[in-house]
Amino acid sequence: MMKKVDNIILIGFMGSGKTTVGKLLAKNLAFDFLDTDEMIEAEEAMTVQHIFSTHGEEKFRELETSLLLSISNSLENSVLSTGGGMPIKEINIKLLKAMGKIIYLRTSIDTIIDRVSGDTNRPLLKGNNLKESVERLLDSRLTYYEDAADIIIDTDGFEVKEIVDKILMTLKDK
Ligand code: S3P
Predict the structure, then answer these.
(1) Is 61 in the pocket of ligand 1 (CB under 6 A)?
(2) Nearest Cα to 79, choosing from 20, 31, 13?
(3) What pTM was computed for the model?
(4) Which of 8, 88, 93, 136 is 20 to 30 A from 67, comparing alpha carbons?
(5) How far apart are CA 165 and CA 174, in angstroms?
(6) Ligand 1 center–CA 173 separation, angstroms
(7) Residue in 14, 53, 144 to alter for ligand 1 test, most ligand atoms within 8 A of Cβ
(8) Rounded to whole angstroms, how far apart are CA atoms 86 and 122?
(9) In the chain, which residue ranges form alpha helices assigned H by DSSP?
(10) Which CATH number, 3.30.190.20, 3.40.640.10, 3.40.50.1470, 3.40.50.300, labels domain 7-173?
């Protein structure tokens, strides 16, 4: 498969800013903005939360891979924001790598907890101890994110615009 470099793929944990950063980045590059969660929701006519509660996580992971397979040859001039669990499957990473440059938005656990607390839309963070859930999940995913990334951008303490500027600068040097 030929590597297309005209797409940007954003990966990272829930609350790392993939959607907000992705939208502004797309605007700056005059690219389309796409979000895998939104695409799955549109395709299934169901929220992510509803997919998890009725069909389970396994089914959602299958839908994520099917979506990547369906767009992998046609995606162009796009910024693609991905669900936080996308890089845990090898096939997904392979497909994403073939689509474009993978940027990992790296965010500390404290910032993540700040951002996702009070959020009821993320099925994996439901439960009593948010800090414990985030810690456990983040710990199990860090190496996947780092290994999959072409570029790592630290986001802690930066405004969305500053993060986008950092990405644009880094892309220039690549
Ligand atoms: C998930 C992250 C969510 C969504 C689903 C599962 C995960 O996306 O795909 O709730 O496994 O980390 P965001 O990272 O956009 O919140």
Answers:
(1) no
(2) 31
(3) 0.95
(4) 136
(5) 14
(6) 30
(7) 14
(8) 14
(9) 18-29, 36-44, 48-55, 57-71, 90-99, 109-116, 130-148, 160-173
(10) 3.40.50.300
